Amino acid sequence: MQRGITQAVAAGCWLASKLFGSGGSDPNPTYAAIQEREWAEAERDRAIKDLANTRAQVTQLVQTIQGMQNRALQFQQDALSAAAVAQQRNQEQMTAMVAAERAANAARFAAENAARLATEESKNKAKEAEAERQRTQAAMEGARRAVEAVQQDAERLQRAAEEEKKKADEAIAGAEAARKAAENGVREATAAKEDAERRLKEGIQPVVTPTPREILAAQEKIQYQENLFHFAVAGRAGGGKSSLVNAFRGMSNRAVGSARTGVIETTLTVGRYPDPDERCQHVWYDLPGAGTMKIPDWQYFNAQGLYVFDCIVVLFDNRFTQTDIAILLNCRRFKIPTYIVRSKADQHIRNIMKEMGYESDDENFDRTQRSAMYVAAREQLVEETRRNVKANLAEANLPDHKVYVVSSSCLRTVAKGEQSPRVIDEINLLNDLYMEAQARRVRREESEGISTSEIGPK
Ligand SMILES: Nc1nc2c(ncn2[C@@H]2O[C@H](COP(=O)(O)OP(=O)(O)OP(=O)(O)O)[C@@H](O)[C@H]2O)c(=O)[nH]1
Ligand SMILES: [Mg+2]
Predict the structure, then answer these.
(1) Which of 99, 286, 331, 406 gives the lowest tally of CB atoms within 10 Å of its CB?
(2) Is the separation of the CB atoms in 406 and 345 below 8 Å?
């Protein structure tokens, strides 16, 4: 625009200069010059006009440009403001972004850290897991070896057990054989025992005959003297033998020099007790009890050397037994005078009275009733005793024999020459024994001259 205006002005000026010359006027212009001049002037006016128009246009343009510039400026300012705002926002966004980035970085760092820690932890855990796995594997290996060892042990034990079982079976078989052999032995022994008992019952004497040497030894043992009469009291253990010997000698069981007595197996060796009355020349022998574990029944006679005594009192307490029968059979074989005596009559009578209903502390029983009962009990005792012994003797094929029922206390009283209201057979027994001794003395005097070495079974 500016350049157009300038060119229009320059063209008008050139035209004017052409028409009017520079500095000098033609005093007689021609018509052509006048027309040219007028054309130039018209051109000049038109150019001026154009110039004015152009100037107006330029002004308008300038204004428009200014308006546009203003608007552009405004736009620019707005843009600047917007840019500032945008920049502000951008700044804020940047700040936010920076913060976000920082946060992201922090988060990433934290995440990385956590991841690293987690990785380390997982690595550690993996290591621990590996160590644990190795430990477990080692433990499993140990357990497997232990199981193998146990299995081997079990197999070994099984083999040992089988071996032991085999041995045990063999031992059982051996034991069974031994048991059968033992049973056979027992059967044979029982048969032999039964045979011996049967033979005893049938009166067959045991085939045990003492030699002259044994007889002499037995005589020496009891200090046998030809001028003395040797009484032995034999029988089952606890029957009252020692008490009877003491009673024969007129002594109580507690007296000094008396034979020892008691409720358990008391007399274990033969006791020699001379009668206190030297005139009668009796010697009493207290024997150990028969039928104990130490000496069986059938050995008793020979074991105690009973074959050397002049007279044997077979004493029993409650039952007349096979033991007593065995002694009697041997006495018969050796022709030794025997006296069957039942002891403890006082005790047995008391027991029978109790069975009859008597109670010692019962006031309903007066003296007369008590005496009557005592007599009845005594009769019962004597009668039952004799009947029982008789039956047993008969069963053993022995001849009937008198039975003396005595109590040691009463016998002691009588032996001392005193009287007793409770006498049963005590006086008879003493008399018969003395008579026996007397008869032997007579026999000895008749057979004077027979040497001691010839004394043997009578
Ligand atoms: N009531 C009463 N008891 C008697 C009688 N005889 C003996 N006793 C008692 O019976 C028990 C045994 O008497 P002992 O004389 O030792 O009998 P034992 O036969 O010599 O005994 P062992 O030597 O062991 O074989 C003792 O407590 C005596 O007091 C009796 O006639 N009447
Ligand atoms: Mg005794």
Answers:
(1) 99
(2) yes
CA distance 83 to 22: 60
Question: Do both 292 and 406 map to the same domain?
Answer: yes
Domain total of the chain: 2
The answer as to whether 187 is a domain residue is no
Q: 266 CB less than 6 Å from ligand 1?
A: yes
Q: What is the pTM of this model?
A: 0.58
Domain extent at residue 104: 1-20+32-147
pLDDT in tens, 19-72: 555 444 567 778 888 888 788 788 878 877 877 877 787 777 778 777 777 777
Supply the Cα-derived Rg of the chain in whole angstroms. 81
Cα(348) to ligand 2 centroid in Å equals: 19
CATH code (residue 450): 3.40.50.300
Q: pLDDT per residue over 268-325, tens digit each? A: 889 999 988 877 789 999 999 887 766 677 778 888 899 999 999 999 999 999 889 9
User: With a 6 A CB cut-off, is 305 part of the ligand 1 pocket?
Assistant: no
Which of 219, 286, 279 lies closest to 438, judged by CA?
279
